[in-house]
């Protein structure tokens, strides 16, 4: 057993912060001395280590608590994920340090590779190696997934613009991607056991709301009745994410604005939505979502 002062000296975490972890029930003491001082055993120190690793990946304490409290949280799997993500972060920082050193030495090197989408593509490749079954389940085959990656690489500049629009910067996008993969890995067992009828419920509900939204494409998308349907779609989507235990996923500050943009400008999305709901449906839904975002900030 270690006292709170010893834990603070060992980890560099202040006593006040350890008190706060106790207060929010993120890390409870293992026991107390006769005088009422907090004591921590090895298991508590392991938990604290997990918390610090999540913090290093810029995951908020509220989300850390939810992840670690999940019945499906796998400590060893989480450590493996931490290792991969920290290596990616280290490599990025090494690249930035190298660029700074070159600049300080007066080297006339114009390099923007430290700010590209390569981390995102690396994360996609890593996901394929670690979760082949999940890839096949969602894409049909490894070949199809590889085609998806190659197509994404061919649209790197376009994807970068969309990432910045949704997250504010490439850095935030890359950090969110790593965090989201980590959350997905922690919840994968739970997701794999979800019944088809439960998934179908949300798919059918989404389809029903979309049909309701585009029932009259001549209407003004700013009308109250249209915006009420949009709000239903947003609420239903949030409910679906919560059911899938993906409500901790970082979708960016402008997720719905990003979705609206894709419905209006992305040829593939437009083609798919118009084929399913009729010509002009994709643009109408996009405009309705865009108005919702602009008026619900």
Automatic annotation (TrEMBL):
<dbReference type="GO" id="GO:0003677">
    <property type="term" value="F:DNA binding"/>
</dbReference>
<protein>
    <submittedName>
        <fullName>MerR family transcriptional regulator</fullName>
    </submittedName>
</protein>
<keyword id="KW-0238">DNA-binding</keyword>
<dbReference type="InterPro" id="IPR047057">
    <property type="entry name" value="MerR_fam"/>
</dbReference>
<feature type="domain" description="HTH merR-type">
    <location>
        <begin position="1"/>
        <end position="70"/>
    </location>
</feature>
<dbReference type="InterPro" id="IPR000551">
    <property type="entry name" value="MerR-type_HTH_dom"/>
</dbReference>
<dbReference type="GO" id="GO:0003700">
    <property type="term" value="F:DNA-binding transcription factor activity"/>
</dbReference>
<dbReference type="InterPro" id="IPR012925">
    <property type="entry name" value="TipAS_dom"/>
</dbReference>
<dbReference type="InterPro" id="IPR009061">
    <property type="entry name" value="DNA-bd_dom_put_sf"/>
</dbReference>
<dbReference type="Pfam" id="PF07739">
    <property type="entry name" value="TipAS"/>
</dbReference>
<dbReference type="Pfam" id="PF13411">
    <property type="entry name" value="MerR_1"/>
</dbReference>
């Amino acid at each position: 057993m270690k006292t709170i002062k010893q834990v603070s000296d060992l980890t560099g975490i202040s006593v006040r912060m350890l008190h706060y972890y106790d207060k929010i029930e993120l890390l409870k003491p293992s026991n107390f001395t006769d005088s009422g001082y907090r004591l921590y055993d090895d298991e508590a120190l392991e938990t604290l280590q997990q918390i610090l690793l999540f913090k290093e990946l810029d995951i908020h304490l509220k989300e850390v608590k939810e992840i670690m409290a999940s019945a499906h949280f796998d400590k060893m799997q989480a450590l493996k994920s931490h290792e991969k993500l920290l290596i990616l972060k280290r490599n990025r920082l090494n690249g930035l340090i190298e660029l700074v050193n070159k600049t300080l030495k007066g080297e006339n090197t114009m390099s923007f590779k430290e700010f590209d989408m390569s981390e995102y593509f690396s994360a996609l490749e890593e996901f394929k190696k670690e979760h082949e079954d999940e890839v096949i389940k969602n894409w049909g085959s490894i070949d199809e997934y590889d085609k998806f990656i190659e197509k994404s690489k061919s649209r790197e500049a376009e994807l970068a613009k969309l990432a910045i629009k949704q997250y504010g910067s490439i850095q935030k996008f890359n950090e969110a991607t790593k965090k989201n993969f980590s959350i997905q890995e922690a919840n994968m067992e739970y997701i794999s056991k979800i019944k088809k009828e439960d998934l179908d419920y949300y798919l059918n509900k989404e389809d029903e709301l979309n049909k309701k939204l585009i029932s009259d494409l001549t209407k003004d998308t700013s009308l109250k009745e249209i915006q009420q349907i949009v709000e239903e779609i947003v609420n239903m989507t949030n409910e679906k994410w919560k059911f899938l235990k993906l409500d901790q996923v970082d979708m960016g500050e402008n997720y719905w604005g990003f979705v609206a943009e894709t419905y209006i400008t992305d040829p593939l999305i437009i083609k798919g939505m118009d084929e399913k709901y009729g010509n002009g449906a994709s643009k109408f839904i996009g405009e309705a979502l865009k108005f919702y975002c602009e008026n619900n900030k």
